[in-house]
Amino acid sequence: MPFTNEGITYETADWETLNNGSHTTIYLSNIDANREDAWYFYLKGEKELNILYKEIFQKIETL
Questions:
Q1: Whole-angstrom distance, CA of residue 21 vs CA of residue 42
Q2: From CA 61, how far away is CA 63, in angstroms rounded?
Q3: Using an 8 Å Cβ cutoff, are 4 and 27 in contact?
Q4: Is pLDDT of 34 > 90?
Q5: Helix (H, G, I), strand (E, B) or coil at 38
Q6: Is 57 helix (H, G, I), strand (E, B) or coil?
Q7: What's the pTM?
């Protein structure tokens, strides 16, 4: 998660741990609550891109 944690850049990130096959990742950080969260979204097929977008926006609405 380059630039979201102090000292991690694109050059120093451990990409193998981030490679989970997801199409889209949303990363949330709440410093006051000392909490981090990541949401992963997977594209099942190119024809399902609209479904993926719908899932993402529905998740964001829960905030």
A1: 7
A2: 5
A3: yes
A4: no
A5: strand
A6: helix
A7: 0.65
